[in-house]
Amino acid sequence: MDIKPIRTPEDLAATLARVEQLWGAPIGSIEGDELEILALLIEKYEEQHFPMPPSDPVEAIRFRMEQLGLTARDLEPFIGTSGRVSEVLNHKRKLSLPMIKRLHEGLRIPYERLLADV
């Protein structure tokens, strides 16, 4: 097992090629352990070179609404009046902490997605 740090795009390409060769290796085997280490190295490289911007809380809400087949009216118990729901969905009002708590508990939207705006 010859594992080297990923410092360049060429290193990344070589590591991805090795991951492809190892894909499906049994957990706990030497190959499986190598695959796990390479995956961690790739993740670290991508975090450093391609950071993800914080998610938009409204997009997280809209995504969850789509998943559950909800309408804006269905958000009223979590956000408030229809006017307030409209303001939030149109980026005219930020989520308050009580709204965030209710959305998390009621719709299971992760806190980290909802708090990006706070």
From TrEMBL:
SUPFAM superfamilies: lambda repressor-like DNA-binding domains (SSF47413). One of its GO terms (molecular function) is core promoter sequence-specific DNA binding. Transmembrane segments: none annotated. One of its GO terms (biological process) is regulation of DNA-templated transcription. PANTHER family: ANTITOXIN HIGA (PTHR40455). This is HTH-type transcriptional regulator / antitoxin HigA. It comes from Pseudomonas mucidolens.
